[in-house]
Structure formats: structure tokens, C-alpha cells
Amino acid sequence: MLPSLYVAASMPAYVNTRIIDEDIEPVNFDTDADLIGVSFMTYNAPRAYEIADQFRAQGKSVIFGGYHPTFMPDEAIQHADSICLGEAELNIPRMIDDYQANRLERFYKSELVNLDTLPILNRSLINKKAYFISNVLQATRGCHHRCTFCSVAPFHQYKIRNRPIGKVLEELKSMGRYILFMDDNLTLDREYAKELFTQMIPLKKRWFSQCGVGITEDDELLHLLGKSGCRGLFIGFESLSQKSLGAWKKHCNRKRDYLEVVRKLHKKGIAICAAFVFGCDEDDRDVFATTLDFLLEANVETIQSTRLTPFPGTPLFEQMKSEGRIIDKDWSHYDFFHVVYQPLYMDPETLNLGTAWLQKEFYSYKNISRRIRKAIAYLSPDTILRVVLPVNLGYRYKLSSYGAFEMGKSFQP
User: Fold this and answer.
1) In terms of CB atoms within 10 Å, which of 14, 187, 395, 409 comes out highest?
2) H or E stretch including 99?
3) Helix, strand or coil for residue 82?
4) How many angstroms separate the most distant Cα atoms in the chain?
5) Considering the entire predicted model, what is its pTM?
């Protein structure tokens, strides 16, 4: 949603723009639009190519943008007239001018955007009722860590940038009470985060975002986090294994007491969505039961549990490609629900079924009920009813519809 809004805001004033999110509404192939823009991730690539091919067959021009076209431009250009490499805000005006002058180039790449100059968004372009939280914004972009499986950091050239706090506050004031910061790591620049949170306190917002586990080692930052209205964080724990974290170069997570991290955040009334990745070269079949034990002991409210996926553009992809371990090049399978490479200490089926088993167990009605009962002691009723319970039931429905619960029955821990 947010990237599309920034693309629209970067258009010259004479361009009439409409945003279509295919998760919300179908693509209108009978549109009278002259130029079609398609932004997509790797798992969306086959569908994006299908959409583009159909529009180009009608004589329309198609521009691609997003992670997959940026990292696989020679492949993507076979289905498009032009590709925006990296961020769009500086490329879009040039692309539109060149399209108008009938000199559209195949590839456009610019330097990283100065966040001081981000355009004002027209939020009327989206159907706010279609999203769980529609009040979405960014205060920072990028990440300087070099985790081998992550495509976010290389997309942003391993740099972190901050928006002026005054502009963030101005945008916040125009929004409702519940806010989602779509930052890759909102607290990576701790001094910036402290100043932002301090100035957010009078706004009395209730907000959610993503950060790293190191947030709890700074008592001042943790205090301001709670005072500013944070009620939930997505945190990349990734693995309980020090060897796995080291292999992925996830050094910012090493030697952390995860139980203490969770305890400190809960004490501030903050719910946690913990991200765990399964399939590191150090993992064997015991990893699933061990991780589930931790999640239940810590009473982590929700999880995003995924199969390790070597995305194009990441060091992991290049490593596995050179080792001949990528066994599936169907991009639609790069969706965290398929195993597309050969693990070392278990076969692909064990990794697939073991992940499904953990999902089935964690999101059982029994464990959802157990988490909610325990969370009453440290989370506000509003957070539980508006966020924790709906997200648990939403994950349960999604995973069940993907067949994870049925698959999980086949795994014996």
C-alpha cells in the first residue's frame, strides 16, 4: 500500500493515477489507462508477468518496479517496456517525461532518495476499509545489517535514512489513533528514535512497528517506547541457535537472552510478533519442538514462521546458486510456504512438514486461548481485542487455508 502511494505522489501533476491492489480487487484489463505500472515481490513474479503480457498484447506500455525487477532486471524486461530499479520517487518523473516524449528507456536507476523531500501522499487513492490498519507511514528506510537472507538491506544499499521528525509528526497528526510504521527497523538509529518517541507522547497514539531485539538493552529507549504508545512490535528473532545466527551474519541477535527480551517488552504492555526462520544449515528436525517450547514459555503473542528462502538479490541466493542447492526456480514457490533449496541436515519434506507442524501447534485454539489468558496480566484489553486476538485468528485462518494444519499432522517431533 505505502510504496504505491509514494509512486502516485511522485507522478507529475498532469497524470491521473489509480492504485489497484489485487489482494483487494481484481485487475481491470479493460481500463483506458495509457501506461500500466506493476510492482511485485519474487513470489508475485509469474502473476506480474501474466498481467503485463496481457496489457502489452493490447498495445499498452508497462513499467515494472519493486524488489524482484530490481534484482532480476534482465528477466523482468522480457515482459515490460521499462524497469524502475530501486526506489521510485526520483525515477518516476523522468520515466513519465520520457514516455510522453516517446523515448522511454529500458532501465532507470537513481541515487537513494533524500527522505526530507518525500512527497505528500494522497490517501484517498486507497480503500482504507479494506486494510487492517490503513494509517500507515514511514519514519525511516533501510537497514545497515548484512543478514544473508534479507533483501531489504541490499535494496536500500545497506544504508539507514531518517525523515525529519517534524514531518513525521505532521503526518501523524492527520491520522487516526491507531498507527502502523512500515519501517524496516524503526529503532536502528536509537537517538533518532528517542527524539521521535518523546515528541509522540502528547499525540496519544497507539502504534505498531518493526524493530530488532537490541531495543531492550537501552532502558531510556524502552521507557519512551511504552510512553509514546507502542502496543506491538514485529521482531526478527530468526533462530534460537547461535550457530544459525552466525551463519546468517545476524550478529545483532547473537548472545541475546530472548526470554528477557520478551519479558521486558511485556512489562511495558507491548505485544510481540516473533519472526522465526527454519532451514539454516545448522538446523535439524529438533529445531521445531525446541522453538515451540520457547514460544509457549515466553508467551509470545503471534509468530511469523517461515521456511528459509534464498531470494534473488541476497548473498544467500548467490551462495546456494554457486553450491547447486537451489532445487526449484518456480518464483511462485518463493512465498515462504515451499522449500526451494536442499537443506543440509534434513530433507526438504522434513523442513516443510516441521514448519507446518509448529504453525499448527502454535495456532491451535488451545494455545491461542492459553496466550490470551496469560496476556491479560500485562496487555491492555484494547490491545488484546483489537490486535492480538484478530491477528491470531487471522494467521490461523490463513495457515489453515494453505493446508498447513493438515500437513503438520504428518510430522512427528
Assistant:
1) 187
2) helix 91-100
3) strand
4) 63
5) 0.93
